Every structure is written in structure tokens, then in C-alpha cells.
Amino acid sequence: MAELPPLRCLIADGNDTSRLTLSNLVGLTETLELVASLPDGLQALRFMQQQPAVDVLLLDIEQSELSGLGLIPLLPSPSPEIIIVAAHRDLAVEAFELNVTGYLLKPLDYGRFRLAVDVAVRRRRAALALELEPASLPPLPAKSNKFDNLSELFVKVNNRLVKLNFDEVLYIEAMSMYSVLVLANHKYIVHATLKQLTERLPFAHFQRVHRSYIVNTRLIDSIEDNRLVVGAYEIPLARSYQEALFSSIRSL
């Protein structure tokens, strides 16, 4: 198998020493290629608007003009794998609700850095893997809407249209510019973002519960605090989606 090229990495950190440290760590990592090292979030946002092909973003959470958490929702789609770099752990929950890949504490060491990068690389390459032919959803008929009583749609897999019963889909997970449809015994990669699927799926019982997850509410087994149990899987439930979810399900 041909060696895969390194992923494009961007650093956004307001501290000169930290930025230099991150640059050195990236230089030690053969799976990453540093494309820019910038001192604040605003410059990083402008860079990514002009250079969208950034795979991994190393982001300082404390920025003078635009905080790291404030930057994430503004990133162009598809967004990169994001590894937060912070002096404190008190914003970790908010960061993971924004679907960051990792959360590193300063001072940095290469062991923890490499573990976080390896996760980001696996996730990014899974989305871009040439070995898997992405599935795609065909356009819906003009008269379709979210309250149709349909349960089946065709998805394109390796030049075949495969009929998929969406009553059996447990949840859908974002993976960069792709999404993964998860059934009990199978997974399908769909070449569409969660936003696109939310707009196109004609099923009222598929509910957004997190920046990175849509869940089949008919198959939720339990809800506890900030997580859902759906079959054999646990799905995070973000606070911003809780009210909409609770209003859409029956409860005593």
C-alpha cells in the first residue's frame, strides 16, 4: 500500500513559546505537515476561509480577540479535526460539546500530543479513505417532507443503489464532510454533512442531539444526564439540543 501523505496542520496560539513548542512537536510527527502557525483565532479563521484544506487544527483556547471556543462554530465546512491546547481543564466539557478531537493541557509533552494526533489522523483518514467508496443520498422527490410515512431510501454504495430501512438506523455520526449511518450490524458512509442530512431526510423521528450526532428517537433506550443509550451505543446529548429532544418524545 502506498504511504499516505501527511495531513495539513494549522496552529493558532497567542503565546510565542507555546506556538514554538507546538511547531516542534508537529515537526516530530510524520503524519502531520505544518502549513501555518498563527498568533490568534481571527487570523486562523481568515486563513481557513482562504485555505479550506486544513485537516488538523491545534487551537489555544485562550485568545485575545476571538476565543478558541468562539472560533469553532465559525470555521468553514468541512471543519478540521480540532485539538484544544489549554492551561486549565475547566472548559473541557464545553469543548467536547463542540466535537473537538482532543484537549491537551500545558505544559505539553510529546506522548500526550501524539496520542491526540493519532486519534485525529485516524478520524480524518477514515473520512477520506480511498478504500471505501462513499455512499450518497439521491435527491428526494420535490413533494417529500419530514412527515412522510416512508421508511426506506436508496443509498449508493460502490456503484450500487442499496435499499436501506431507516427504521433500523440507530444514529448518524458526522465525520468531516461525510456522515456514518450506524445500524445494529452495519455502517454506511454517506457523502453528506449532518446539516445536509437534516434538511434532506424525510423522517420526523430523526433528531439532532449534538453537533456531531442525529439519533433515531424511536430507538432511544434511555436518557441520563448528558448521554443517550441507543442499542449498544452511548451518544452524547448536548445541552443546546435537550429542550428540542424532550419536547419531541413521549414521557410520563
Task: Describe this entry's structure for a reader.
This protein is α/β, with parallel strands linked by helices. The protein has 2 domains: 7-128, 3-Layer(aba) Sandwich (Rossmann fold); 152-248, LytTr DNA-binding domain (OB fold (Dihydrolipoamide Acetyltransferase, E2P), Beta Barrel). It is built from 7 helices and 15 strands. It has helices at 16-27, 41-50, 68-71, 92-97, 110-128, 194-200, 239-248; strands at 7-12, 32-38, 56-60, 81-86, 102-105, 152-157, 160-165, 171-175, 178-182, 187-190, 206-210, 213-216, 220-224, 227-230, 233-236. A 5-stranded parallel β-sheet has the order 2-1-3-4-5, with helices on both faces. A 5-stranded antiparallel β-sheet has the order 10-9-8-12-11. The protein has a 3-stranded antiparallel β-sheet with strand order 13-14-15, with no helix packed on it. A hairpin with a 2-residue loop joins strand 8 and strand 9 (178-182). The longest helix is centred in the middle third of the chain and has 19 residues, at 110-128. The radius of gyration is 20 Å and the shape is globular. The protein starts with 6 loop residues before the first strand and ends with a helix. The model is unreliable at 130-134 and 142-149 (pLDDT under 50).
